[in-house]
Amino acid sequence: MDMFCFQCEQTAKGEACTSVGVCGKNSNVSNLQDDLINSIIELVNCGKESEIITDLIIRGLFTTITNVNFDEKSIKELITAIKNQINCQNNFNIKNIWNNNDDTKSLKALILFGLKGMAAYAYHAKILGYEDKTINSFFYKALRDISKELSTDELFNLALKVGEVNLKCMELLDKANTETYGQPVPTKITTNILPGPFIVISGHDLRDLELLLEQTKNKGINIYTHGEMLPCHSYPKLNKYPHLKGNFGTAWQNQQKEFDNIPGAILFTTNCIMPVKNSYADRVFTTSIVHYPNITHIGEDKNFEPVIEKALELGGYNETQNFTGINGGNILTSGFAHNTVLSIKDKILEAINSNSIKHIFLVGGCDGAKTGRNYYTNFVKQTPDNSIVLTLACGKYRFNDLDLKDINGIPRLLDLGQCNDAYSAIKIAVELAKSLNCSVNNLPLSIILSWYEQKAVCILLSLLYLGIENIRLGPTLPAFVSPNIWKLLVEKFKIKQISTPENDLKDILSSY
Length: 512
Ligand code: SF4
Ligand code: SF3
Description:
This protein is an alpha/beta fold. The protein contains 18 helices and 18 strands. Bound molecules: iron/sulfur cluster and FE4-S3 cluster. The site of iron/sulfur cluster has 13 residues, from loops.
């Protein structure tokens, strides 16, 4: 075995990647990422907390998320920086966890992967100047606990604690995003690409988008979002830039096809970067935590000049390109975060009470390459006319170009934002439940999740921490969840794997 990684949904044979990652990560990178985790845990075990150490922990964990960093050099540098802070003698080896009994391994994986996802959210909040001491301290505690021998009960509770703290972290990021860029407002976004030079910006980092928009002002360059950047159009202080024109392409797994010979520059600010093909390698740039070998990295100074020069050199398309989403639509709508949805709460409640809205579906999470993921398209297409569909994260590209019409002026498809905007979904559900005098579990609400990487893990843990039942998870179950732990989750939370859209819809609708 050259490597061991089973942290994402596309892991080899549904078990683990052991010679090379399905994501394209080679064994050297994978083993270095293990070393990185080992050194982080050794560092927290020295007991010292400081701003520098917190920053290293957060960046280190984020670096190991799927499709973030494929570059040995940058990982080695991070390991060295961490090792320089270790001032006590202790050894940790992640392999010892993977060699544990199935249930301990499973729970420790849930905790570690959840912490990785949460680190990404803490990172984005921090970039905007928002931090929370309790969140930061929890990273230390939970990472220390991973290296301890704990009972199944203790580990299970710690996994739920990750969910609890992650909820706080998503709330912090929501505060950071909305206080910095304004409350999102419903916004229509075109998938058409205009003639002339352009830059495609991918990932989750709003600050990087703002800086790019500033630096490209009046330069004759248009900016298009990609993947998880799509909801940025709905933030007033980002949407105010007239050269933020629209959205390019669909979800991350289609990038090798969609970027083939693209006459524009591409900037990756976070996951998901895929192995870069020669036909566009010269026009790809990375920044912040993302690194890829031989690809120009824009450092902390955030000087995007090389990206701008490349866009001008490539010149863009000669004519407008009428691209569409995967179902043929060319208008995407985003911006239905908690503030907007709750501003029409009375209208929604009235529609629920009069049976105009009989059911609310939350179909959200990551997209991915598996053919079975067309489940989510078919599911949304088959939802009844008297239901609304809330969505978030990049899984929405499976259906966000569909026109689902509206119910009494309330759009049937409401895009809440990025994966971290699961916070919005939770806030909406809690508020509706309060108004209807019931628990979230008693709302006519069903949650259908698609997962791929570790941010989905921390979101799932937040939902479980809240005691939300009957979540449907797909397209496959995590390889790191052992049969016993899955059984426990089923018993406690009635969690289920997705089956077919027809069966699941029938089952859901017959129980309300
Ligand atoms: Fe395999 Fe996923 Fe790990 Fe990549 S991140 S090596 S695809 S399990
Ligand atoms: Fe997507 Fe990578 Fe998870 Fe933020 S961008 S949801 S997969």
